[in-house]
Every structure is written in structure tokens, then in C-alpha cells.
Write a structure and sequence with these properties.
Strand order of the largest sheet: 1-2-4-3
Radius of gyration: 24 Å
Structural class: alpha+beta
Number of domains: 3
Distance between the termini: 32 Å
Strand content: 5-15%
Shape: globular
Number of strands: 10
Length: 465
């Protein structure tokens, strides 16, 4: 029976220190993300025990509650409503009668984790548009190759490409919002990156190219705009603030973007593309093994979203990201491991029920239900699932080294849901064949490794031995 979203939201907030402790609410495809004022007030174990909660990740300044696709949108909407309805109350330290330990450590997030979380917050809201436009771009490519509906393909091209052409503006808007600036000013400065007229501007002896630097340039431009805006706010008289602050922010940040940031970001973006190509061309199987094998731990820690800028840069530069199909193999290993657990633990009705309910999502690339509901609690199956992901990644990487590159035109989906987004230098059919072979390899190795080494004794899981 499905849990009521309103009840789940209320229970989550109660264990997150109450609505007054929550400073912001957001979500990605599977996780409710709460930023909190007092991390010590969050009852992580209580959150994990809630029905419908598949896992909890804390990062010092916030908490991520894994709820699964579909459910997370409903619970997020209810949570936002409850936070809005709650009367604002100033935060105060817990007193002796509050049942909290005044000396409890707060475990602040490390600077690197905090930065990765904030960068992820910039790009995660863009994923739905990336998915939708990516699917349409893939469909349009099939129609073009088949010569079908020639009157419709120009319109589909415009619909699918419009967002990617202006993604820098959205990145700038979200960056300023995340780092405390005025969102529209961040978007205005980032728009300089994609403005066609920059082709007339010369920097470092060469003409700029519209879009040069891509999302990295937009991110840097909006960060600079936020710093300039904050500097102005503290120095410009109140009567002139509404006029001077936006003007100085756009002028200074825009000029620095044109005569420095775009060129520098373009160099970095080119280096990322060259590094990805070199990595797969020279060390394809090894690179695939490492990336496919380590991705599940990144998902478990909630750090996988930090890779979005790299994926987006590759898509803007090459038309697809060659890294996503490698990383997607981690989900294949997870599915194979879950199937092995299902076969081995025939008498564990509860666990088998969990696997049956989570497996469809796992096949479509949503791995958290299987991670937190099956493999991670058992221990060894999580490691053997990583082995399956490593094998699938090595398979795809091997063909990349042979010259058959497989990429994704958008980010977000993986598993079988990634097939409509596949592209490559040898055409979509070859890309689909290589990717499908990688999935089957991940399933098989994940299943075999878990069946043979994922348990101690004949039927007991490693975690309970």
C-alpha cells in the first residue's frame, strides 16, 4: 500500500527538527533535499525508519531523503507547503529541558562536499528539461536518418535545441540564486556567453565564439556577478542602489566575462573533451572499469550530481557525453546483484517483496531503492554490485578504445531508459548494441559475483553472519 505523501512529509519534517529548522526544500529524481539551520536537530535514524524512506544521506548542512521517482515530487510539494505554513520562529540552542545534548557535535560538511552540493543545486533543477529535449533530439535524429516526416523535423529541431542553445542563461540564473545574488542578474551576465554578437569581440588575439566556455563560462560569470552585486550593495547609497547596483554588476561582470572568463572557460571545456577522448582511446577498459565500479558509492553519498557540469560540457561540445554510458553500468551491476539475492534468499519474503517492487526502477536506471533497500543493508552484495558495474564499464570502454564511442545526448536517465538518448560516432544502432552488451555484462557479472561471493554460509547474508 502506498504511503500518504502528506503523512510522509509531516513525519519527515518532525524528524528534521521541525519546519522551523528547514531553510530550503528541493528535490531531484529520487531524493528530497532539505537544507537545515541546525544539523544536530536532525534525527537521521528516525528518518531511515519511516515507511517509504529508502535511505538517508547527511552532509553537514542538510539531509537527503531517498523516496524514489514519482513519490518524491508529491512529498516535496507537501513538505514545501508545511514549511510555508509554519510560523517563523528564531532559532535557539537546545536547552537542558529540550532532550538534546548541548555538546553534540554538528559535523559540518567539508568545504569540498559543501561546494559540490551547491554546484549540484545549480544543475539538478535543469535535469527535466535536459531529459525532455534529449529525448526529442534522439527522436528527431531517427526521423532525419530515416527520411520520415521532413516537414516536422525542422520544428522538432527547434524545440529540442532551444533549451541547449540558452542553457547558459538558466545556469547563470540558478548560480546567482544558490550563491545569494539576484537570479535575473546572474542570468543576464551569463547570457553574454551565448549572445551571437560576441563573435565581433577579440580576446587574447582571437575572435570569441558564441557559446565559448559553455556552462562553465556561465557558472563563472554568474559567480562573479554575485560577488560584484554584494560588493555594490554594501557601498552604494540606498537611494541609488536600484539604479547603480544592477548597472555596475552587469557592466563589470559582463566585460570580465568577455575579456577573460569565456576564453579561460573555453580552454577548460576543450581540455575536458580532449581528456575524455584520450582516456577512452588509450585506457578504455581500465577507465570503464574504474568509472563503472566507483559510481555506486558516489550515488550512495549523493555526490554523483556534481558530475552534471562535466556531462553538460561534453554534450555542448561533442553532442553527447561519453561518460554517462560508462557510469550507467553501475546500475546494471546493481540489478544483477539484486536478482542473485532474490534467488539465494528464497525464504526471505520481505526482502524478495522489496526486490520485486524496486527492480523495475532499477532496470530504468534509478538505483537508490535497490541500494538502500537491498544491497547496502546486506553488505557484500553492494561490493559485488560494484564489481558488476566495473565489468559493464570495461565492456563499453573496450569498444570505445576500438573506436566505437557510445554517448548520451542528455543526462538523467540510465539503464533501459537511456536507449532513446544514445548516440555515437558509428551511429545510433552501433551505440545501442555496445551499450546493450554492457548492460548484459553488468547484469551477468553482478549476478554471478553476488551469487558466489555475496553471502556467507549457504543462505545467510554477510551482514547477519
Amino acid at each position: 500500500m502506498r504511503n500518504d505523501p502528506a503523512s510522509t512529509a509531516a513525519a519527515v519534517l518532525a524528524r528534521a527538527g521541525g519546519p522551523g529548522n528547514v531553510t530550503s526544500v528541493a528535490h531531484c529524481m529520487t531524493r528530497l533535499r532539505l537544507a537545515v539551520a541546525d544539523p544536530a536537530a536532525v534525527d537521521a535514524e528516525g528518518l531511515r525508519a519511516l515507511p517509504g524512506v529508502l535511505g538517508v544521506v547527511t552532509d553537514g548542512a542538510g539531509v537527503q531523503i531517498v523516496l524514489g521517482p514519482g513519490v518524491v515530487e508529491e512529498v516535496t510539494a507537501r513538505t514545501e507547503a508545511l514549511v510555508r505554513e509554519a510560523a517563523p520562529a528564531p532559532a535557539r540552542p537546545a536547552g537542558p529541558g529540550d532532550g538534546a545534548d548541548e555538546t553534540a557535535p554538528r559535523h559540518p560538511a567539508t568545504p569540498v562536499k559543501a561546494l559540490l552540493r551547491r554546484v549540484a543545486n545549480v544543475f539538478v533543477p535543469l535535469i527535466p528539461a535536459l531529459i525532455g529535449c534529449g529525448v526529442l533530439a534522439g527522436l528527431n535524429g531517427l526521423l532525419l536518418n530515416a527520411g520520415l516526416l521532413p516537414a516536422l523535423t525542422p520544428a522538432l529541431t527547434a524545440v529540442a535545441s532551444g533549451f541547449m542553445a540558452l542553457i547558459a542563461v538558466f545556469v547563470g540564473h540558478n548560480t546567482a540564486k544558490e550563491f545569494g545574488g539576484t537570479p535575473v542578474l546572474g542570468g543576464a551576465v551569463a547570457a553574454v556567453v551565448v549572445y551571437p554578437g560576441v563573435a565581433k569581440v577579440t580576446a587574447f588575439g582571437v575572435h570569441l565564439v558564441p557559446g565559448q566556455g559553455g556552462v562553465l563560462g556561465a557558472l563563472a560569470a554568474a559567480l562573479l556577478a554575485t560577488r560584484v552585486e554584494k560588493w555594490c550593495r554594501g557601498r552604494v547609497p540606498g537611494a541609488l542602489d536600484v539604479l547603480l547596483t544592477p548597472t555596475v554588476t552587469v557592466l563589470v561582470s559582463g566585460l570580465v566575462t568577455l575579456y577573460g572568463l569565456m576564453y579561460a572557460a573555453g580552454v577548460v571545456a576543450t581540455a575536458i573533451g580532449a581528456a575524455a577522448d584520450w582516456l577512452l582511446a588509450t585506457t578504455g577498459p581500465a577507465a570503464g572499469l574504474v568509472l563503472g565500479g566507483l559510481f555506486l558509492p558516489l550515488v550512495m553519498l549523493g555526490l554523483h550530481q556534481a558530475l552534471i557540469p562535466i556531462h553538460t560540457t561534453l554534450i555542448a561540445q561533442q553532442g553527447y557525453t561519453v561518460l554517462l554510458p560508462l557510469l550507467a553500468m553501475a546500475g546494471a551491476g546493481q540489478v544483477g546483484a539484486a536478482l542473485a539475492v532474490y534467488v539465494r534468499l528464497r525464504h526471505d519474503v520481505s526482502l524478495r517483496t522489496t526486490i520485486r517492487s524496486a527492480l523495475p526502477a532499477g532496470l530504468l536506471g534509478v538505483g537508490e531503492p535497490l541500494i538502500y533497500g537491498v544491497s547496502l543493508p546486506l553488505g557484500r552484495p553492494f561490493v559485488t554490485a560494484c564489481a558488476g558495474g566495473a565489468a559493464g564499464g570495461a565492456f563499453v570502454g573496450f569498444f570505445a578504445m576500438l573506436g566505437d564511442k557510445v554517448g548520451a545526448t542528455a543526462i538523467g536517465p540510465s539503464g533501459w531508459a537511456l536507449f532513446p538518448l544514445l548516440a555515437g560516432n558509428r551511429g545510433p544502432m552501433t551505440a545501442a548494441a555496445v551499450y546493450g552488451g554492457g548492460l548484459l555484462t553488468g547484469y551477468a557479472v553482478g549476478f554471478a559475483a553476488t551469487y558466489l561471493f555475496g553471502f556467507t554460509g549457504r543462505s545467510r547474508p554477510a551482514a547477519s553472519a
